Amino acid sequence: MLQQNKKITYTAQHYSNAETVGVVQDTTVFVPNMIVGEVATVRVDYVKRSVAFGTVEKVLKCSTKRVKPPCKHFGKCGGCALMHMSYDEQLVFKTTKVRNNLAKIGKLNCEVLPCVASPKVLGYRNKLSLPVCGSKGKVRIGMYQRNSHYVVDMDNCMLGADWSNAVVRVCRQFFNDSNLVPYNQKDFSGQIRHIVARYVDSQLLLTVVTNGIFNINWQPLIKGLTKHFGNSFGLFVNINTLHNNVILGAKTQHVYGLTHISSNHFGVQFKLAPNSFFQVNDGVKDGIYAKAKELLNTSNTQVLVDCFSGIGILSNALASPNYDTYAIEIEPSAVEDAEQIRLLNNTPCLTNILGDVKVELPKLTQQNKGKNISLVVDPPRKGLGETICNTIINAKVDNIVYISCDSATLARDLAQLSSHYQITYVEPWDMFPNTDQVETIVCLTRK
Predict the structure, then answer these.
(1) % the chain with pLDDT above 90
(2) How far from 95 is each of 404, 408, 443, CA to CA, in Å?
(3) What tens digit of pLDDT does each residue of 376-429 get?
(4) Which of 89, 92, 238, 342 is a Cys-bridge partner for 85, taking CB atoms 3.0 to 4.6 Å apart?
């Protein structure tokens, strides 16, 4: 049996979630930062029965698909898990992840298409949420080290772009010059917890998350941001005094500049508030939405329902005078945004509903009993769950497009739905290059 802190010779045989998997002395070993086929000296960090976890000490046999990570923080920062792989291999990794989860968790034998590449591999994120730590005059802003609450200080996350570099440097200087105290997670003291920045079509919304109400002179920060962004930015303060890991509190105040971002994506005009849900990779988002519209068969549709609809960009794009469209979203601010977007785009056949999909979807399907219903679902990581899947089955929904950000919960849901639905299309999309996360779009038709 393997022992903790001992060194072993390890061969990476398969990919798991963010790690490779191999077998040593009848023990299944999980090791990150390796590529299938590589051999390494590995230190065993943890052993429980026939499973162990390890850390690479030295790669003895390198894969031709290994590359030098472009970010100096890779391995320390927990933001990226795959930056040591060529991009082609990252796509193989993500295709394999989806295929394995569908087969092992869902017991499904269906074709999984190759993962669709992102137009940008670096600098693709339009939003960054960064914790603020350290001490007065020595503020650290960056990403958490993997499996810890230690913040790796950095001027720029390479998944962001020049705009995020400027935001971090300006904020750090302002916090240090103003002698503001960073948040301490151990005793819940300090003034500044996070910065949250969104940059879409040359417009910036910056939210500084504070640990209470403080008398802070924001003018130096406004001056610093003006040098980089002119008049195309808005500054907000969010107050969060809760003792947990949730980034934003309930109250957000506008301080200066823009109150929202205005733009047009996928043929839909929209406005974004600081806390609006919006996919982080514009190029992949538009591709997924186009694929959803292509896959959804609305030739006989009388009612279309978009569940977990966010601010409603996809709802507006799918709406048609030929059928009634409903969008269900539980977040009140998102529904307010969605209603503004509906009016902005003059979509009278669309109805936005504030509520839980578990509650509102059964109501809608009962009200429209006997009609041909098409469904789009884009749930959070926890997926649909048994209750919603049963509602879909009982309502005899005609066809479904399922957009998933977690292929494990997707596999669980598809296993239940597949008793009544044929899975006709599965395609991963690389919404998050250099990380182990992958988006997947699935089409189902009623048997």
Answers:
(1) 89
(2) 14, 13, 17
(3) 999 999 999 999 999 999 999 999 999 999 999 999 999 999 999 999 999 999
(4) 89
Q: How far apart are CA 309 and CA 153, in angstroms?
A: 35
Kindly state the tokens that stand for 37.
């086929």
pLDDT classification of 161: cutoffs 50, 70, 90:
confident
Sketch out the chain's domains with CATH numbers: 1-66 (2.40.50.140), 103-117+279-446 (3.40.50.150), 127-265 (2.40.50.1070)
Q: Give the CA distances from residue 174 to residues 131, 230, 317, in Å, rounded to whole numbers and listed in that order.
A: 15, 17, 42
Burial of residue 356, with CB atoms counted within 10 A of its CB: 0-12 exposed, 13-18 middle, 19 or more buried: exposed
Which residues have a Cβ under 8 Å from the Cβ of 64 and sit 6 or more positions away? Answer: none
Distance CA 280, CA 146 (A): 21
pLDDT tier, 18 (very low <50, low <70, confident <90, very high otherwise): confident
Q: Does residue 164 sit in helix, strand or coil? A: helix
> Which residues are within 8 A (CB) of 408 and not within 5 positions of it... i.e. 6 or more apart?
101, 105
pTM greater than the 0.70 cutoff: yes
Residues 148 and 165: their CA atoms lie apart, in Å, by 23
**What is the rounded distance in angstroms from the CA atom of residue 276 to the CA atom of residue 122?**
23
Distance of CA 28 to the CA centre of its chain: 29
Give the angle 325-290-264 at the CA atoms, nearest 5°: 80
pLDDT (mean) for 269-277: 89
Rounded Cα–Cα distance for residues 397 and 411 (Å): 19
CB contact at 8 A, 13 and 21:
yes
